[in-house]
Amino acid sequence: MNPTPNERLLVAAMAGGDPGIKALSAGREVDFVERVPHEVGLTIRHEKWVDGVCRSERSVRHQVADPALFTAAAIRLVDETAPTTMRSLPCLIHQPEAAPTLVETLVGALASRVVLVFEDTPYNGSILRLENLADRCFVPDQTAAHRWSGQHVVTADIARIDEPEPLAVLMAGDAAADPPATPEAHRVLIVSYFGPPSTLVSVQRLSYWHEHLAPLAAEQGTNLHVEWLTATAAGRHHDRVRTVMDRSDNLTDSRRAQLAEMHSMKLPTIGVSWLDAAAAELDRWTDPFDTVIISVGPFGYVDLGLAVKERWDARVIIDFRDPYGGDARMGFTLERRTWANTHERAAIEAADAIVSVNDRCLDVIGRGIDIERRIVNNGFDDVSIDEAREGFVNERNDGLIRLAYCGTIFRHLPLDDVLDALHATRHRLLHAGRDQSLSQALAHTVVGRGLGFITDGVELNRILLGCDAGIIRVGGEATTATTKVFDYIGCDLDIIVVTDGAPRSGALHQMTDGLEGVFWVRNDPDELAEFFATYVPTQAPRPERVSFSRRAQTQNLLDLILTDRSR
Question: Tens digit of pLDDT for each residue in 29-84?
């Protein structure tokens, strides 16, 4: 990569040490900032490098390791050496895991492009936000990449900071601008904190809407133009996706009181600091939108609809995959639940419609508020399943019953008792997804095999097509459903629901009631052993399969959007 004249970037080392700054500065100007932690406080060192030569060096010592203080000091040191428009200074950060909240604040203050180069792969809320605002993340080797894929929501490539790829990604140009919408188009904006290329199920749902709403509308003779606003920085390389950075809790102004209150109650705050940035972004747009779909969680920006209403005469639809205060899985105290419900209700009262994935969720979301409500479930991805089915031949001849578990194995919903109930001469369980269980039982059994997180939907569906049944693990909450049930239906698998609650109850039963090949069993060692000892696969296609497709569910959303055309 040949640097242009006066090309300048910031390289920051969060755990101290020189990450190869001489090579990185070859042919360019580099501001190298090093964080040197002490038992009390830290030192911030700044070196100015030009074409492989260190031209100056300064440092400052602080007795407290405050993120805002570090950021102010680092910017002052860089600016005093050679004044610059800091907001245009791209950043290459080494070992952000050593001080993720500090990096969040520094990058938020610069509001510039950033590439993160990790040496280790811990996971917490600050790193979640940090990886979401990065153009790309890198880890040092395949072992780290495997650990990363077990938890993180964006993918990471393998490279070290002194190798060419991280710098090439950082200095690459943006994708070409999208063509404008035709003047007569009904303009739809999807808003979500996480966007492409995040691997979350919620993003897969929205990606389908983003890609297929307009073609579905065209089939009905309606011209729709769909865009997406997200905090995921790498999303800007996708067509019709706009991004705006979450500048971190430490840099927000109008939300300080709200954040302090939420921190005092130990409520999750992700998305709160993004709300003002997203609202300010809307002010810069010249063309309004007719319909705005605000998809949550996280829930910190659930009331963005208030800002939308102030700016445009747009219809606001809030997409709740789960309730906020009414989600039993959150384990909220009464105080937290009351606060969340109040926040949720204010947002709903300013909206025009809400959608969710089942009736049980719609019943508890904004209970008592007179507002239009629709079910728009995730559905199975008909595009990838149709491609997987094409030419698929099941060549199994081992006589084993093959079981699948798709998605995360959660800490509070382990598969330990399920694995203990399986027999090596009769069963095999394949897991595709992340394993967050404390026991990691899957890694120590002969009847199960972890396939890791599979991002290719066609590959995953071909694995499912070679199975007999899919397992769903639930805690027994009434509102709980799961996206994996649709994948199992799409591939004509039996569905085995292992529950901590009452069998055949709640939203999942409501959704699957009447379908052939659905089995419920308590998460009890004796009941599981008895069930799997006698279970025989149904192996019968379901005539209702098409109604569970993502296309059919997206049509429900489109019908809601198009009711706005008569306004």
Answer: 999 999 999 988 899 999 999 999 999 999 999 888 888 888 888 888 887 755 55
- The contacts found for 140-143 with CB under 8 angstroms, 24 or more apart, are none
Q: Which residue has the tokens 């005093």?
A: 80
**Number of C-beta neighbours around residue 64 at 10 A:** 9
Cis omega (within 30 of 0) for bond into 288: no
- DSSP state for residue 163 in the 8-state scheme: S
pLDDT at 391: 83
**Peptide bond connecting 5 to the previous residue in cis, omega within 30 degrees of 0:** no
Out of 110-119, 331-340, 362-371, 526-535, pick the least confident: 331-340
| 191: its two tokens | 């808003």
Q: Provide the pLDDT for residue 82.
A: 54
| Distance of alpha carbon 312 from alpha carbon 298, whole angstroms | 24
Pick the closest to residue 512 from 468, 557, 474 (CA basis). 474
List the one residue out of 197, 69, 107, 86 whose CA is nearest residue 116.
107
- How many whole angstroms separate alpha carbon 560 and alpha carbon 320? 15
Strands (E), 81-208: 91-94, 114-117, 136-139, 156-158, 186-192
State residue 565's pLDDT score. 46
Work out the number of other CB atoms within 10 angstroms of the CB of residue 1.
Answer: 10
Name the pLDDT band for 6 (thresholds 50, 70, 90).
low
- Percent with pLDDT over 90 in the chain: 59
DSSP-assigned beta bridge partners for residue 59: 45
The span from the CA of 266 to the CA of 47, in Å, is 39
Cα distances (Å, whole numbers) of residue 258 to 43, 250, 262: 32, 13, 6
Question: What is d(CA 87, CA 446) in angstroms, rounded to the nearest whole number?
Answer: 54
Which span out of 123-127, 226-230, 560-564 was modeled with the highest average pLDDT? 226-230
407 Ramachandran zone, left/alpha/beta (phi>0; psi -120 to 50): left
Are 127 and 98 in contact by the 8 Å Cβ rule? The answer is: no
Please, which pLDDT band fits residue 111 given cuts at 50, 70 and 90? confident
What the chain holds in terms of domains, given with CATH numbers, is: 8-171 (3.40.50), 186-379+552-566 (3.40.50.2000), 382-546 (3.40.50.2000)
Residue ranges of alpha helices (H) inside 41-96 are 67-81
Write a three-state SS string for 428-469: EEEEECCECCCCCHHHHCCCEEECCCCCCHHHHHHHHHCCCE
